[in-house]
Specification:
The protein is 37% helix and 19% strand. It is an alpha/beta fold.
């Protein structure tokens, strides 16, 4: 069985795609998609805004910039990215969640049902920015870098946020069966350590300007103690314990071609 950089089997790809579609349909049917993905509630909203702002700033999103959002899901971040005024396209594997996203954006973004491992739905396209939140840990990175990140124009920018495998909760969710099921994680979902994620992007010829663990604010943090957690967070991020943060963020770009 062939496995690549993040250990997802190429041979099992059709099974993985089917599981992702079933997962989307299951969460939508249960009405718990936002809860499962950690964007609901006061702390979840703060976390979502942090990530959206990171993508907008690091990818240089503004009017006139063509941007591709990978794995848009139900549109939680698609709607936030639209605030930048960029010309936004968003691709999603699950037809069910893509339909919800399409309703939410109401024609303000192009929603594509496609596959970021194979490039399906994106053929012949190029973009000035490619971004995503919690999507790369679902896919075979070697294929995604080959078939989708290559759509980034010379001089273009990318920005992503992913779960951090060095975080104890994330590690347990990926390795302990009942925790995986409780957190609605599929069997093939993984996570990234900052150094490994940087190597993946650099091995694909991309330049990385930022790659670091961040965010100690747990989505279930009650409103009344968010301020205290944010204070503690600032202290932890100034120490080696930063490596244990909940997520990893990465940004950079594709080098501009030299004029001949």
């Amino acid at each position: 069985m062939t496995k690549t950089a993040n250990m997802l089997s190429v041979e099992s790809s059709q099974e993985r795609y089917a599981e992702e579609r079933r997962q989307g349909e299951k969460l939508l049917a249960g009405g718990c998609a936002d809860v499962a993905w950690g964007w609901s509630g006061p702390a979840g909203a703060i976390r979502a805004e942090r990530r959206a702002e990171f993508l907008i700033q690091q990818a240089g999103l503004k009017p006139g910039v063509t941007c591709l959002e990978l794995g848009c899901g139900t549109g939680e971040f698609t709607t936030r990215l639209l605030r930048s005024g960029c010309a936004l396209s968003a691709v999603e594997l699950s037809e069910a969640t893509a339909a919800v996203c399409r309703q939410r954006v109401a024609g303000k973004a192009e929603i594509i049902v496609g596959n970021i491992e194979t490039g399906e739905g994106l053929q012949g396209r190029t973009f000035a920015a490619i971004v995503g939140i919690s999507v790369l840990h679902h896919v075979n990175m070697e294929l995604c870098l080959k078939h989708t990140l290559t759509l980034l124009k010379p001089g273009g920018r990318f920005a992503f946020s992913e779960p951090n495998m060095s975080n104890p909760q994330v590690w347990l969710e990926r390795h302990v069966g009942f925790l995986r099921r409780w957190r609605h994680a599929t069997l093939h979902e993984t996570a990234f350590r900052a150094c490994a994620l940087r190597r993946l992007f650099e091995s694909a010829g991309l330049e990385v300007s930022v790659c670091e663990p961040f965010d100690f604010l747990h989505p279930s943090t009650p409103r009344w103690c968010i301020g205290a957690v944010k204070l503690l967070e600032r202290m932890l991020e100034a120490t080696p314990l930063r490596v244990l943060a909940g997520s990893v963020r990465i940004a950079g770009g594709r080098a501009t071609m030299n004029a001949e």
